[in-house]
Structure formats: structure tokens, C-alpha cells
Design goal:
Keywords: Cell membrane, Membrane, Transmembrane, Transmembrane helix. It is found in: Cell membrane. InterPro entries: Pra-immunoreactive, RDD. It is a multi-pass membrane protein. This protein is mainly α. It has one domain. It is built from seven helices and two strands. Helix 1 packs across helix 2. It is globular. The N terminus is likely disordered.
């Protein structure tokens, strides 16, 4: 027998709706560990894409075609994340048992995954735009960037479901999932 829940004095409309446990955000610590692991995996993507770009463009010096390389990497990252998010998760997300779904808990469409990719640049663009008018050193930009990442992550605590704000804007959410192995025949 379960004891009855205590009655609340607030009207039902004033209480936040409890989401299905499946749709709850994983703990912030786990999401940030996944984010860090994703960054490490992206070094491989950057290496392969940079090698491909350098070979195809016959770039001999790292600073030649820098803006074209940055544009190329933006497109490669977009393809990478859009592809994997539409499948439910990247390798890092699978490792940390995190899945990305739409607001209703359904798999993402390619267009919603692309929207999430574009909005995920809110992790980086504000500090980079703030640093642009100043002649800051690489270390100062790194401090500014890391400070913003910490602020952006902590701001998820103010979302009703604990989601990152770029997910709220994109109509997506990160959820915990348990990967089950298929029985071997």
C-alpha cells in the first residue's frame, strides 16, 4: 500500500507538469562529460577533414585558405552531427547513455537535427563574437570561451526540465537511455 501524496495548497495549474521519466534530462555532470568526450572525438573528424581539405585544395601552409577550411569544417561538423543525431546519438552520447529526441520523445528528423546543430553554436559564438573586436591572446579567448561554456551549462538548471537552452529552442531534448544488447543466436 502506498501512502497518499500530501495535498498541495497550490491549484493544479500552478504546479509544473512532471515529464515522463524517460524524457528527463540526464544529470548535468554526465551531459558535460559526454560533451567533453565528444570534443575529444572531434579531433579525429578535424584531422581527417583537414587532411582531405589540404589534399584537395593543395594547401601548403596551415594559414593559407584558413577561412575556407573553417567553412569546410563547419559543413563537415554539420553533416556529422545531423547524421548521428537523426539516428539518435553520436558515439559519445551512446557511451554516456544519452539520446537526443524531439519534444515528444520521438527520433529527430534531419531538418530538426540540422536546426539543433545550428543552435548548438550558442556554446561558442557569443564569446567568440565578444572577443572579435579586441586583440585578445589565445589564452584569454580560451578563458572567455570556458567561462561561457560553464555559464551556458549552468543555465540549464533554470530550464523546467533541466535541458540545455539550445535544445529548448530547437524543440529537442537529451534523455537517458539504456542500451540493451540483442541476444546472440
Amino acid at each position: 500500500m502506498h501512502a497518499p501524496a500530501p495535498a498541495s495548497s497550490a491549484p493544479p495549474s500552478d504546479q509544473p507538469k512532471a515529464a515522463h521519466p524517460y524524457l528527463q534530462a540526464p544529470p548535468l555532470r554526465r551531459r558535460m562529460a559526454c560533451w567533453l568526450y565528444e570534443g575529444l572525438l572531434m579531433f579525429g573528424v578535424v584531422f581527417i577533414a583537414g587532411y582531405l581539405f589540404g589534399t584537395l585544395s593543395q594547401t601548403r601552409h596551415a594559414l593559407d585558405n584558413r577561412h575556407a577550411l573553417q567553412g569546410f569544417l563547419f559543413i563537415v561538423f554539420g553533416i556529422y552531427f545531423t547524421w548521428f543525431w537523426a539516428k539518435g546519438h553520436t558515439l559519445a552520447m551512446k557511451t554516456w547513455h544519452i539520446r537526443v529526441v524531439d519534444a515528444a520523445g520521438q527520433p529527430l528528423t534531419q531538418s530538426r537535427a540540422l536546426l539543433r546543430y545550428v543552435l548548438s553554436w550558442l556554446w561558442f559564438l557569443p564569446p567568440l563574437l565578444a572577443a572579435a573586436p579586441f586583440a585578445l591572446s589565445g589564452g584569454e579567448i580560451a578563458v572567455l570561451l570556458l567561462g561561457w561554456v560553464a555559464i551556458w551549462a549552468i543555465l540549464s538548471r533554470f530550464h523546467p526540465l533541466g535541458q540545455f537552452w539550445h535544445d529548448a529552442l530547437a524543440g529537442t531534448r537529451l534523455v537517458h537511455f539504456v542500451h540493451t544488447r540483442k541476444p546472440q543466436s
